[in-house]
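Hi support team,

I submitted a single chain yesterday and got back a structure, but I'm not sure I'm reading the token output correctly. Could someone confirm the output below corresponds to the sequence I sent? I've pasted both exactly as they appear in my results page.

Thanks,
R.
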Amino acid sequence: MQETLEKLVLLSKISPATDEEIVAYLRRSYQIAEIAASAEQETWILGVCEQLGITVTDEELQTAGDAFRQEHKLLGVSETMAWLDKQRITVKDWSQGIRLSLLKQKLKEHLFGEEVDNHYLNNRNDYKRMALSQILVHELTEAMKIAQSLREKSTSFCALALEYSKGKQSKENGGYVGIRFLSELMPEIAQALSEAKEGEVVGPLQTRLGYHIMRIEKWFPPELVKTREQVLESLFQVLLNKKNKFDFNSH
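Hi R., thanks for writing in. Yes, this is the structure output for that exact sequence:
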């Protein structure tokens, strides 16, 4: 039996997929449209940057490449080459990826850099951050019971989340769902939490997902330096959505 299994393993050894096989897989798994949309977006960014005269210098590319290697712990030539081999890309592919990332950042700054401060000041509350815990259940009676228990402090939030929460992340992490911006949350949840105090139990609050019992572990004051990139990306995505809608309607 063992010999048969070993022969099967040898006979069924998986060979590296060719580029054509990878594209075929993306088509079969219905992922090609998403990949194509990303490629089209990159082509558009390159075209707009060319029209606006936005470029990347060799020094900027070198600095960004050094930062990338530092972040990914590619501290030597051997580590870098092994990583490139694993990613199935060349040094040229890697450099082009970094260049595209820099061009996109420069384009965002060119288009919206001057608007960021004003947008931030007018939407300051959207960029308040919090460390958030949550328990999500499907029945109101169960949600009411959990909320009452928390307010009476008879059971820990962590224990109740582990036992009752239907949300995968909150159940696995004892209720903790991480640091979130108000603007990331569903509107009804963001509104309910906007004036809540640290440690306060909020809910049950009903959404399309079920009943949420939440607690803010800590508020972080909004800071433009930490949220500037998110504001830029948000404004850039609005532009892309408008562009895609225009392209669709023009066909």
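A quick pointer for reading it: The mean pLDDT is 83. Let us know if anything else looks off.

Best,
Support desk
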